[in-house]
Amino acid sequence: MTRAPLPWTAPTATDPVRWTVQLPGSKSMSARALVLSALAAGPSTLLRPLRARDTELMAAALRSMGPQVSTVDPERWVVRPRPLAGPADIDVGLAGTVMRFVPPVAGLADGPVSFDGDPYARKRPLGPLLDALRALGVRIDSPSGGLPLTVHGIGKVAGGEVVIDASASSQLVSGLLLAAPEFERGVVVRHVGPPVPSAPHVRMTVQMLRAAGGAVDDTTPDVWRVEPGRLSGRAWEIEPDLSGAVPFFAAALVTGGQVTLAGWPHRSVQPVERLRALLQQMGGEVTFTTDGLTVRGTGAVHGLDADLSDVSELTPALAALAALADSPSRLTGVAHIRGHETDRLAALARELSALGAEVIESHDGLEIRPRPLRGTVFETYDDHRMAHAAAVIGLAVPGVALTDVACTSKTLPEFPALWSAMVNGTS
Ligand SMILES: O=C(O)C1=C[C@@H](OP(=O)(O)O)[C@@H](O)[C@H](O)C1
Ligand SMILES: C=C(OP(=O)(O)O)C(=O)O
To answer: Which parts of the sequence bind 3-phosphoshikimate (predicted)?
Structure first.
């Protein structure tokens, strides 16, 4: 990764924020729509996709194997499928979606496709996916069991039944399912091991596969069957990114203000009811209005006792709120976020402690006992959601100095500008 770090002191809010935020599309929906579109029988469009490092890397990865992906119009990306072929060299950056969703597609390409990424990407769990692909008939060279690796595609994948331990990441399952309609025998994926985290993301995969014409049976827990068959091209309406909105919603709680996420759909593939319950437990009011999804702070932030395994990517923002709460919190069920962009449990424990909070790190979570906080340097570890957590605390604590805010470009390059606009009350 060659990006220069951008130090940034988080702005402190002197008044309750009152703001409507227009956010780009969901990272997770955009990534799935790109993969499904590249595999479809005809062209597709993505309406209001996320334009950020992760999705641009996904577009580039697919393009390098043949499909045309036009990102010229930021509101409307166009994907035209073409025969998949190597040789190709793919940079996954630090994107779990690219490193887990694209190798199964590369198995379908004719020719070698190599993958590598940022230094920390080499540490993120990938081995179970590679073993599963091998069992399905794909030849892969991976000296370390992860990145760097080369998929030696022969233009087809036999498919069939496979057992995987996907407890390290739901993306290991999603990656297999997304490409499976193109496998000669489709796939039956059977998970064996501790629970698969982030269940709503697997549901999103199943829903989007079906929307593209895929036949998926997920009626048996931990078993997913995808029939072979051609996917259809279509127009994908990408929903605003709910996870990206969470730090902004947290600002409503911290300042006793109100934040609306504009353009929220009536029906969503993102876990909005779960988020609503969590924010309400912490003292927020969450309503759906014609303007969008609105979170109102009530003036108090309460501690939270919750298993976050299904919404684990929200842990950093919720941990930041917990550090500002009026009672202790216990966040559990998220051992696997040690394999996210950084070891998020260790990173949160270290940085929240440095600010003055009392934090006890366990193997699968954090106990956070709020104490008076003081501004200090906050290491962001190349992790966009660590930067979000620091910004949330900075609303209430002057002098929270992020080592690098540019890491937010992974999912929202506009983050520092949007955040400052919210705090300063400008649009
Ligand atoms: O499939 C996806 O789009 C995602 C799945 C989840 O991964 P894990 O299951 O590894 O938590 C989530 O945390 C990540 O941000 C996005
Ligand atoms: C875990 C995350 O990302 P990735 O898709 O890279 O796994 C995240 O965005 O919080």
So the answer is: 27-28, 32, 169-171, 198, 313, 340
* Amino acid type, 307: D
Average pLDDT for 111-116 = 98
CA atoms in the 13 A half-sphere facing the CB of 122? 10
Domain of 230, CATH number, reads: 3.65.10.10
Beta bridge partners of 88: 113
427 pLDDT exceeds 80? no
pTM of the model as a whole:
0.98
137: left (phi over 0), alpha (psi -120 to 50) or beta: left
Nearest-atom number in ligand 2 for the CA of 410 is: 9
* Residue 375: domain span: 8-23+240-424
Ligand 2 pocket list (CB less than 6 A)? 95-97, 313, 340-341, 385, 411
User: Which pLDDT does position 426 carry in this prediction?
Assistant: 74
First-to-last alpha carbon distance for the chain, in angstroms, is 32
Specify whether 414 is catalytic.
no
- 256 CA → ligand 2 middle, Å: 29
Q: Whose CA is nearest to atom 2 of ligand 1?
A: 28
Closest ligand 1 atom to the C-alpha of 168?
A: 10
Domain end (from 194, 219, 237): 237
pLDDT level of residue 1 (50, 70, 90 thresholds)? low
The answer on 143 and 257 residing in a single domain is: no
Q: How far is the CA of 162 from the centre of ligand 1 (A)?
A: 21
